[in-house]
């Protein structure tokens, strides 16, 4: 799968296959595909692992080099033990702070994180099983935006065309987002089984004042 293949799939869904009279230009189509890829990535990010050296007697790790980062799943420290030791951590901007009992000594830590998927001219990181799902979202965005643009404009397809595109686009986006919610929950459960993430407890009964 590459970007051209994805365009073909989306155009087929939109019945926009006349190359001499495309309703959406390639640039417009690419923009809708990119939006769907980004939303897909936020639910099912591209899984990555990186080894970072810690600083002796410092709990902080600079992860600014992890480009296109969507989330951090787990941090392994120390590295190379069995079973693996996953550390509780907090994240503020590009600074990851280890909260466990182990104070880093300068040895390596492994960070497991998710980043944005790429869909380029010659390559893709999107798993084959999810390509149709991304196409569904891209088609929904394309139809919805075209309908919004065409509202109150003369339409050669008839007065019902805009409404049909609007409904079609809304339905496809609802299906797309429902699938992402379902798959995203499953993904979080799998990652969450590896460690207990750090989130400060929020009292539901105590009023701490302003």
Characterization of this structure:
By secondary structure, the chain is of the alpha+beta class. It folds into 2 domains: 3-43 and 118-192; 46-115. The chain is 39% helix and 17% strand. The protein contains 4 helices and 6 strands. The strands form 2 sheets. The chain has a 3-stranded antiparallel beta sheet with strand order 1-6-3, with no helix packed on it. Helix 2 (26-43) packs parallel to helix 4 (161-192). The longest helix has 32 residues, at 161-192. Residues 189-210 have low confidence and may be disordered.
Short account of what is shown:
The protein has 210 residues and is of the alpha+beta class. It is built from four helices and six strands. The protein has helices at residues 3-14, 26-43, 131-150, 161-192; strands spanning 46-53, 60-62, 69-76, 89-92, 95-98, 108-115.
Strand-residue proportion: 15-25%
Number of strands: 6
What is the string of SSEs from the N terminus onward? HHEEEEEEHH
Contiguous runs where pLDDT drops below 50 for at least 5 residues? 189-210
| Number of discrete helical segments | 4
* Overall form: elongated
Oligomeric category: single chain
List the topology elements:
Layout: H1 3-14, H2 26-43, E1 46-53, E2 60-62, E3 69-76, E4 89-92, E5 95-98, E6 108-115, H3 131-150, H4 161-192
Antiparallel strand pairs: 1-6, 2-5, 3-6, 4-5
Helix pairs in contact: 1-2, 1-3, 2-3, 2-4, 3-4
List keywords for this structure.
210 residues; 4 helices; 2 domains; three-stranded antiparallel β-sheet; 17% strand; disordered C terminus; alpha+beta; elongated; single chain
